[in-house]
Amino acid sequence: MRRFLVTLLLFGAVAGQLHAQGKIALLGEVRDSLGIPLQFANVMALDTSTRKMASFGVTNEAGAFRLNIEPGKVYKLQASFIGYVPFERIISLTESNEVPFLITLKNDVTQLSDVEVVTEMPVLIQGDTVTYKAEAFTQGNERKLENVLEDLPGFEVDEDGGVKVQGKSVSKVLVDGKEFFEGDTKLATKNLPANVVDKVQVLQNYNDVGPLGGVNNSDQLALNIQLKADKKEMVFGDVTAGGGPEGRYLAHANAFYYSPKTNINLIADANNVGQLAFTMRDYFRFSGGFRSLASSSGSSFSINSGDMGIPMAERNNAQDLNNQLAALSYNFTPSSKWMLSGFAIGSKVDNNFGSISDRTYVQQSGQETLASSSNVTSTSGLFKFGAKYIPNPDLQVDYSAFGRIADISNTANQLSVFEGNNNQINSGTTQQPFSVDQQLRAFYAPDEKNVVSFEGSFKYQEKDPLYDLLTTERPFAALIPTTGSSPFNLLQYKKVETAKQEAAVNYYRILNKTNHINLKVGNVYNRQSMLSNLAERFGDGTESEIADDDFTNNVDFTFEDYYLGLLYKTKLGDFELTPSLNMHHYRVSNTQLGVEDGFDKTLLLPSFNAEYNFTNSHSLALNYNLNAEFTDIENYAQGIVVNGYNALFQGNVDLRNSWYHNVRLNYNNFNMYNFLNIYGGLNYSRRMNDVSNIIQIDGVERINLPINIDSPNEVVSGFANINKRFDHFRVGVGGNWSSSITNNIISDVSNQNKNFVQTYNVDFGTRLWKALQLNLYYNLSFSNYSGNSTSNKFENHQPKAKLSFDFLKGFTFETEYEYNRYVNTGNNTETTFDLLDAELRYRKEGSPWEFKVEGMNLFNTTSIRRDSFSESLISTYAYYIQKRYWLFSVMYDL
After folding, report:
1. Are residues 709 and 649 in the same domain?
2. Alpha carbon 501 to chain centroid distance?
3. Over the Cα atoms of the chain, what is R_g?
């Protein structure tokens, strides 16, 4: 292992030296005819022999640029800036120039159109929009959109398809100005072919409502992928089919059609090799673009999700993964005033999990060993329809509906060993959750000084989990009056219905170009009902309800929020201030066991945002919010609910809201002159009256009762990242830190949990002769957990390498290696494991056919180590993972 890493590091160092040696710097300045420096002008050197870009730069605020070129070669030096006549000159240097090379651009009296200028400029900056010409940065061997984005300066793409630009997360992806599957970055980056991308636009402060253009308070970052002209009004995409030993299979299809009036996107996938086109996590993540209207006013009402602890499959935590997906999205513009859009996503998963964990309970002696195997199957659907009416730039009305439905089953077999006692556990959860959201919005600007908007939404949600628990040991013998004999079988029935409606009216008064006022009035009305009961099943299949009010719930719950808010936004040069004040009046009531209870409360919630923009890519932002958070019916229901073989939960009718101070400081600095990207942030949250738990523990059995804890819970976190791109390589260093203090009560004793997690990463990437690409990573993490009587420390060292090599004519070899050294300092144990994947591809130049052989987990590693921490439990897991497999596949470009 050490020899392997040393070899890779030396190779990377040599690669960097090979690229660096022989290069000389061409320093210069770009000015207009009056001698004024031009910032953001494009300057590039084109190799006249290969006719390809050898070096590229963007001028800084002083108009300066730097290009690294090889001495003695002949280059065409080009400079361009919107509204100016492009500059061209043939140059050849033998040594670095000491006197800056001066380029003077003259005003273009013919006023070339923006479209013509964009095609000539690798980077165009216009206000909040930055446009990148893709072919100026790519190598020509990129496969998907994610590979294109990774080549662009300031862009980062993670393994899940998430995208960051200059340290800021992208929240939406558009293709030719239209949303791509709700703007989902994962579906876009993993499926859109690289060879159709013409330009990538970064849309800062993105807003899709025309009348709000002058009062835009959005901080969203969106990408607009502009397609090549020859990909319009035709079907493009690709189709892949593959198979391998032991029944391995893969089928994947992408088909896209774009025209001025009609856009259609189709994605289909079926495989059992762990390529997760769509996961259960994605299902619960999709929201249809709906958001709480009251969230921007400092108030939130959290509805418990329907995942019910379903294991979320990833390639590094599951033994067997079977996934199927069919997804269709469309945008149709029948006229200049109407636009219809929507999508339908159907998925089916069948995943198997296995693990062994060592579990230490806070303030308890002894350690539990839990062996677990489980299977999750799900058939789910997501559907959305939207209609937008824009008769003129001053009026916009839109309607959207979003539906979610699923049939989910989670079965588990477990063996718990604690203090010499063995408990065999078989459990299963089945549920068919569904929800429907509708939203109507209208925006009207009667004149340039006034804007009025109305937004209303309605949500109906239902979930009905059935938990079936079978154990050899009597569960909660002191509380649950079971009458059968081993094995004991409990059935926990539960049904929760939620109906939530929101409405908000906003009035914007534009005082001048740098000041506006926003007055809002809104209401949230949420009604929930919950039914639950516990039954015992006997060996002959008969059932008997446990007729005890302690295990029965019949609850009606209502939450109301009436609020009035005032926001003022002002801009003083490069300094922007946005203070706001929101007055809320709440009514919370619940009825159970024939008794009605509740409370009224009025809160004043301020917020303050300040941002200083040194340049359009260099900023410092401070945000402060005082937020109130209310919980839903399941935390109020007093009847005991069985949540697991060792976990009971009982609600608390006396719960009140929590409220918390939240402060965020973010810094972003991307320098287009030298492609240096620096970003970081600090976050502090202090939660008062927070909802925590009283936990009674007896052995491994726990009973949780939510309470408002007196002591504050605090979280301090931070992150920092520095990365820089050179001509043919890039380097990056980053880190994340999180320290939290949470309070609860365990076995009648106050307990304070402290958690400090640190992660550090270093990465290096280079490309040699266009044919060889090497990426090296090193990730290091430390996790420190402590309670009043229990503590533990974990660390993980993870070097990683990726290599891609083009050879002969049309062959490409790729491999990825990851090594892990996992240390549990609490019990002085150390585990090492490594993962190796490789693939060989062949594509004849100009051919639509590609052939591939790939092998995954070639060392056949059986398990990996992870750790986790909760308010009462510290766990170290060994997850079983998918075994080695081989696959041969064929891809055809449409």
Report:
1. yes
2. 27
3. 30
